[in-house]
Amino acid sequence: MSASADFVVAGAGHNSLITAAYLARAGYEVVVLDARPIPGGGAASEEMLEPGYLIDSCSTGHTLIQTNPLLREDELGLRERYGLAYIEPDPFAHVAFPDGRQLTMWLDLERSCEELERFSRRDADAYRRLIADYDAVKHLFGASRFTPPGFGPSLERMLAEHPDGRRWERRRMMSAWDVVRTEFESPHVQAFMLWQAFQTLVPVDATGSGPLAYSIVFGRQRRGWTLPEGGSGRLTDALVRSIVDDGGSVLCDRTVSRLLLEGGRCVGVETEDGERFRAREGVVSTIHVKHLVEMAPAEAWGEDFLYGVRTYDLGLSGFAVYLATTSPPSFRTPDGARNAVSAGLAGWPQQMLDHGRRLRDGVYDPDPAWLLVATPTLADPSRAPAGHHTVKLLSGQAWRPPAGERGWDELKLRQADRQLERVRAVAEGLEDEAIVARLVKSPEDIERSNRHMIHGTFHGGHRGPGQIGGTRPVPGWGQHRMPIEGLYQTGGTTHPGGSITGAPGRNAAIVALADRNRHLEEVIASPSPTSMRT
Ligand SMILES: Cc1cc2nc3c(=O)[nH]c(=O)nc-3n(C[C@H](O)[C@H](O)[C@H](O)COP(=O)(O)OP(=O)(O)OC[C@H]3O[C@@H](n4cnc5c(N)ncnc54)[C@H](O)[C@@H]3O)c2cc1C
User: 233 C-alpha to center of ligand 1: Å?
Assistant: First the structure.
């Protein structure tokens, strides 16, 4: 089969769907291809365990995308036309520390500070100050995230012109651990702050992770671990409907294996089954850059680009345990049972540092110091049969099992038991009789489910000074235009990286439109192609 469209989009993760949706709204015919049987990549809800239990196979929390103008201004009508709705769970976090003490954080800042005061009055003040400090500059970080590199002033310049800019110039290059140990004295509060900072699996001692100690907890304090009502896949459903209503199509079970080049230009793609999709205007890819470079001859990319991809740091791998249960995990505290949509175990700071270092070195960690226990059904009961729950235990893990193990297949089950035991030590509700079904994904399984998540990494690659802004994925190629003319890149391997932010998707649309002398503002202000046709 051979087909054509204005834009052929390779991969249907939320980012490339966003790019496709803006391009379709601009009147271009788009066709989106994905290797998986369903669209959405890491924004999917699947009945993976038992009918009636809608499991978020990857992302659950959509906090980071809330400030994207796509949702903030509802630029494509995903909320108004397609019914996308979000829940802001309260409390926004509950963690248990290694000594059994626990901490609950609430959307009411003062209530959170009262909790922190149980550990240190000084740290409660420091927390108020940290939230206020980020509040003063959040618009600058937001502008840098939601603008393609080079299309607006750099973050450095914006900060230099801000009264607090000098402090932020330093913090941007610090590590999250350096920020946390400067601001907080109590090991419990430090452990909680590191637990928050590590949510995107960037090691807390990595240069440049400093802002994560501010930005992640700030978003949670403001709007909780924001959940799409009905599951993560609701974002995907809304995007697909928008694309289809604007004349585009989304095709699954299509693995792109080759870029079609003519006269040095990318004019389409070929799938593993030999289908060809030709692009009149351009090809947009969310294929991992490490795979992308294999899809065209080396000379088409150039040595510098290939060097940048060869040295691209994939980041840390993950490990997930999915449960369908008859009760939620309820943490035992002196004040009674507590639970939160986003809960977990937070190791001491030194354990967090050791955990990150082990994973960086590829060393298996039997007891990860960071464990997330996500129970979205606490706030959104529509995802499971009445009174039942879906629970996901998420942790970092080494890509390879340790020497002496035959592979992940057996080890992953023992590892899941071990993690479950650690949760059971502080919480009720996850006893064997409460577990209806269970599925475990090792880093290898995560990669098998989604080839974009190489080695089971799922935030698009490490986020450090060498892989951010104009240097992501490769220095000089941060503007979504790839060395092959007609080829654009989006997704987690482009600025500002992975997670559900939608930023790479919207930014790529801005660039592709600009190359056609079009502006995103003009596109969203004009009537949709559908309304023009009817
Ligand atoms: C267990 C787990 C929990 C997570 N929890 C959260 C969370 O709570 N909050 C959060 O913000 N993030 C979370 N993440 C991370 C988040 O899911 C990803 O960072 C995000 O989905 C990246 O989006 P993307 O659009 O860049 O790409 P992806 O979502 O990875 O989509 C890429 C798509 O491209 C397709 N593709 C790749 N190569 C090809 C090819 N050759 N041909 C055709 N199609 C191809 C893939 O099949 C996939 O559908 C989690 C991830 C995992 C695995």
Answer: 12
Mean of pLDDT values over 254-258: 98
Mean pLDDT rounded to a whole number for the chain: 97
Whole-number Å distance, alpha carbon 120 to ligand 1 midpoint, is 39
Preceding omega of 465 cis (within 30 degrees of 0):
no
* Residue 286 Cα: closest atom of ligand 1: 34
Q: How far apart are CA 500 and CA 225, in angstroms?
A: 12
Q: How far is it, in rounded angstroms, from Cα 12 to Cα 35? A: 8
| Separation of alpha carbons 85 and 75, rounded Å | 15
Looking at ligand 1, which residue's alpha carbon is closest to its atom 41? 256
Contact 286 CB / ligand 1 (< 6 Å):
yes
**Ligand 1 touching residue 58 (CB < 6 A):** yes
- Among the listed residues 359, 253, 281, 373, the one whose alpha carbon sits nearest the alpha carbon of residue 316: 359
CA gap 223, 225 in Å, rounded: 7
Give pLDDT tens digits for 409-466.
999 999 999 999 999 999 999 999 999 999 999 999 999 999 999 999 999 999 999 9
* CATH number for the domain whose boundaries are 2-45+231-313+459-533: 3.50.50.60
Cα(41) to ligand 1 centroid in Å equals 4
pLDDT tens per residue across span 343-369: 999 999 999 999 999 999 999 999 999
With a 6 Å cutoff on the Cβ, whether 492 touches ligand 1 is: yes
The residue type found at 212 is: L
Longest dimension (CA), the chain: 71
Q: Work out the burial of residue 94: count CB atoms within 10 Å of its CB; fewer than 13 is exposed, 13-18 middle, 19 or more buried.
A: buried
Q: How far from 320 is each of 84, 344, 511, CA to CA, in Å?
A: 26, 13, 35
CA distances from 56 to 19, 236, 321 (A): 23, 12, 11
What's the mean pLDDT in 191-205? 98
> Would you state the structure tokens that stand for residue 256, as one six-digit string?
């792109």
pLDDT, position 533: 55
Backbone φ and ψ of 306, nearest 5°: -65, -35
pLDDT tens-digit readout, 29-43: 999 999 999 999 999
Query: What does the alpha-carbon distance between residue 113 and residue 180 come to, in Å, rounded to a whole number?
Result: 16
pTM: 0.98
Ligand 1: distance of its center to the CA of 42 in Å? 3
Hey, whose CA ends up nearest to atom 5 of ligand 1? 59
Domain ranges of the chain: 2-45+231-313+459-533, 104-225, 316-456
Write out the H or E segment, with its range, that includes residue 102.
strand 102-105
Helix (H, G, I), strand (E, B) or coil at 514: helix
